[in-house]
Specification:
Elements lengths: L31 H4 L6 E4 L2 E5 L5 H4 L7 E2 L2 H7 L3 E3 L14 E3 L3 E3 L6 E3 L20 E2 L2 E4 L5 E3 L2 H5 L16 E5 L9 E5 L6 E2 L8 H4 L24 E4 L7 E8 L16 H4 L5 H11 L9 H14 L11 H18 L13 E3 L17 E16 L22 E15 L2 H8 L2 H20 L14 H17 L10 E8 L2 E10 L15 H16 L6 H4 L34 H4 L17
Parallel strand pairs: 4-18
Antiparallel strand pairs: 1-2, 2-5, 3-4, 6-7, 6-8, 9-10, 9-14, 11-12, 12-13, 15-17, 16-17, 17-18, 18-20, 19-20
Helix pairs in contact: 3-9, 7-8, 12-13
Length: 621
């Protein structure tokens, strides 16, 4: 990572020259630049703190020569971009890197306790230290953010000089502020602000209350420090005080897609820049003419017949219509999942093109008899898969899974035709529940009543956090979805003991709908370590039957029972019932719904009513 370049140098065409030789501030892995330290996030490097810059000018802030293009046309169409790019690599081999800007700007000196804007300390060039004490400055421990993603320094002056008129600048009152710790306790009460103007000192206690800043008439200024020259936006949200290193300061909004046939064949990537022309072709002859022009007479990597197949798939996949204003992005994203489910059910055998094929999905070769009576359909072994994860936006304060698009903060000041992304390779097992059995189970009044409680609480959270009251997202909580989600969690927990992968390396992909009842449990990493065969081996029928029975038996009892199974509400926002970290909750990297919409009783029942458990017939009570 490097700080932003100076603004002086320009090429003849007006674009900025790529800066070289800028000081490096640290290094992160490429995957972290999407999932942990993406655009708009805060990153601590030694004793300094920075915010990752936006992607407005790729030549300045996201160097194109170090950001290779990623091909995934299905996901690109859904997100309204033309391509994706990998983050620049870190390390000695990288000439440049992702740019960062210093934030927060308020610092204090641990020696003289002075608290001020970083520029007021008159630090020597290239060093961040107090000119009087020669001590390294400490970035502000506190920041303020709102639900629309705006971020600013904590208003120390207003917090200390409460009730006094002023513009909030240090020195407006004629004094200089200091920040010190009394050392009596480790709480905020011991963090004390004072000013030489004589105003009574104030501690930071109470600053994290939801209405603390509103009570002092402190409003959100609509600042976006990750975007260069971004104007302040009008904002009616109430700002919240957050710890600089809190996960609430930045949470990514990720969208992902599996590469499925025919797009999973890497030979099709050579046509990525030419689809606008190829889509105008209506016959095989026109395709042949375009291919000769594109490849200038050299043999193309794909045949005209294969191009026609890709064009047909492109038209078939666009079931929602790109030009239909009534179809939002989330509906297109769900349609993309429908296509994945159909392909996972259909399978794709490994053929002669296995070296260029990125998706191999086959049923197990063993006898299906061990699965009899479990309530499962024949599984599919996904021996090879590729997933593209794109950073669409990010949120602050609130969880992106319970927010609407109005709360998403943008990655750039002006629209771009690309998004940061990463591609991962791995393996997995696709499990399906018996459709007839799950329908009969979901019709039980007791099952419907439990899931309705979850749905109402989740819908209330979505309504409270909706940016537009007329477009509140609909909760996905249904008996089928809650069952699949909880089932995926207990299977991941069990397979983490047998497959060689820890639970944090396994992920779920839920396929729930009127005609869908499946879950893909897979591992995907940025190297070949995610496809060693350990997880696929667990999908063989004899091992799978044993794993399902073992997982259900483990879910029957929790070390927190009877409190866990009898609870009326649990989880963030009360969106869980019988679920806790001692039984079915997983690391957040593994779960699509942030450990929400879970209920262990849907698997095994309750002591009072075992029949509500879909797998209760596997238990001996």
């Amino acid at each position: 990572m490097t700080p932003p370049p100076s603004r002086g140098r320009r090429r003849a065409d007006g674009s900025a020259t790529p800066a070289r030789g800028l000081p490096r501030r640290g290094a992160v892995r490429r995957a972290q630049a999407i999932t942990t330290y993406g655009v708009g996030s805060l990153i601590a490097v030694e004793q300094e703190s920075f915010i990752v810059s936006g992607i407005d000018s790729a030549e300045e802030y996201w160097p194109r020569d170090e950001a290779p293009v990623i091909h995934e046309p299905r996901l690109a169409r859904v997100l309204g971009v033309r391509r994706f790019r990998l983050p620049p690599a870190s390390g000695d081999a990288s000439r440049d890197g992702v740019r960062v800007r210093r934030f927060p700007l308020w610092h204090h000196c641990p020696e003289c306790h002075a608290l001020d804007h970083v520029r007021k300390f008159n630090s020597p060039p290239g060093r961040n230290e107090c000119a009087e004490c020669s001590e390294p400055l400490v970035p502000s421990r506190f920041v303020v953010a709102c639900e629309d993603g705006h971020l600013a320094d904590f208003p120390y002056w207003k917090w200390l000089h409460r009730g006094r008129r002023g513009d909030g600048r240090a020195g407006f009152c004629g004094g200089r502020m200091t920040l010190a710790s009394s050392g009596r306790t480790s709480s905020l009460r011991s963090v004390v602000l004072s000013c030489s103007c004589g105003v009574p000192e104030v501690s930071m206690e109470g600053s994290f209350r939801s209405g603390a800043l509103k009570d002092l008439n402190i409003r959100c200024d609509g600042k976006r420090p990750w975007l260069r020259d971004a104007p302040d936006l009008p904002c009616s949200r109430t700002p919240r005080t957050l710890q600089r290193g809190s996960s609430s300061v930045w949470q990514p909004v990720l969208r992902s897609a599996l590469s499925i046939p025919p797009w999973s064949d890497t030979r099709a990537h050579a046509l990525d820049k030419h689809w606008d022309k190829l889509r105008t072709c209506s016959s095989l002859t026109e395709v042949e003419i375009h291919l000769k022009y594109i490849f200038d007479g050299t043999p193309p990597p794909v045949t005209p017949e294969e191009v026609m197949t890709l064009l047909a798939a492109m038209g078939a996949e666009d079931t929602t219509g790109d030009d239909n204003p009534d179809v939002d992005q989330e509906q297109r994203y769900r349609a993309l999942r429908d296509l994945e489910y159909a392909r996972l059910c259909e399978g794709h055998a490994e053929g002669s093109d296995h070296r260029t094929e990125q998706f191999v999905c086959e049923p197990p070769t063993g006898d299906a008899k061990p699965l009899t009576g479990l309530g499962l359909a024949i599984p599919m072994l996904v021996k090879k898969l590729r997933e593209v994860r794109a950073l669409k936006a990010f949120t602050r304060v609130i969880d992106p899974e319970t927010s609407s698009e109005g709360h998403e903060a943008e990655l750039s000041l002006t629209p771009t035709d690309w998004l940061p992304a990463m591609e991962v390779h791995g393996e997995g097992v696709f499990l399906r529940l018996d459709e007839d059995r799950i329908d009969a189970w979901a019709e039980q009044p007791a099952v419907a009543e439990r899931v309705e409680r979850i749905r109402q609480r989740h819908q209330r959270v979505l309504t409270e956090r909706a940016s537009d009251p007329t477009r509140v997202p609909v909760s996905p909580a249904t008996p089928r979805m809650a069952l699949l989600h909880t089932f995926a969690h207990v299977m991941i927990d069990g397979w983490s003991l047998d497959s060689g992968y820890p639970s944090a390396s396994l992920r779920e992909r839920i396929y729930s709908g009127d005609d869908m009842a499946g879950v893909l449990i897979y591992t995907a990493t940025s190297d070949s370590a995610g496809s060693l065969g350990g997880l696929v081996a667990q999908g063989e029928t004899d091992r799978l039957a044993q794993a399902v029975r073992s997982a259900v038996h483990r879910a029957e009892w929790c070390s927190a029972d009877p409190l866990c199974v009898e609870t009326e509400t649990s989880g963030a926002g009360g969106t869980n019932l019988a679920a806790c970290h001692a039984c079915v909750m997983l690391p957040e990297t593994s779960c699509e719904y942030n450990n929400g919409l879970l209920d262990r009783a849907l698997l095994v029942g309750t002591p009072e009513d075992p029949s509500i458990g879909f797998f209760s017939h596997l238990l001996t009570r």
